Amino acid sequence: MDHDKESARGLVQMEGYLLWSAEVEEARRSALRFADELPWLTTAQREDVARVYTADRVAASRAMLARIAARSTELRGEYNDRYCRLKARCVAAAVVTAGAVSGTCTALTLLTR
Fold it and tell me: Is the pLDDT confidence value at 93 over 80?
């Protein structure tokens, strides 16, 4: 079972790495397209603009991912609390129902004697 969890964790990490690499590559491509829209720049200036644009986009993506991760952690806690309350209600309802059925059966048994 540990190997399965370890494999799953490795796959999740690899997926995260590939997604992040794709995001960085997309930021780089966007930066190059942006720099190409500024034909008056020298080659060095174009490279600087592309580098700064890429860094800014990567930083924005990182901040967005941090916000999403924080929110998903909050939601996990909220849903876990709701699930625990729902489970407690279901167990209570089952106990009350079993008690009512048992009481009814006992009452019918006593009445029919």
Answer: yes
Q: Which of 71, 62, 69 is nearest to 20 (CA)?
A: 62
Tokens of 87: 């489970």
So what's the pLDDT on residue 4?
A: 87
pLDDT value of position 1? 65
Q: What is the pTM of this model?
A: 0.68
Tell me the C-alpha distance between 31 and 51, whole Å.
7
CA distances from 88 to 27, 74, 77, 83, 91 (A): 48, 21, 17, 9, 5
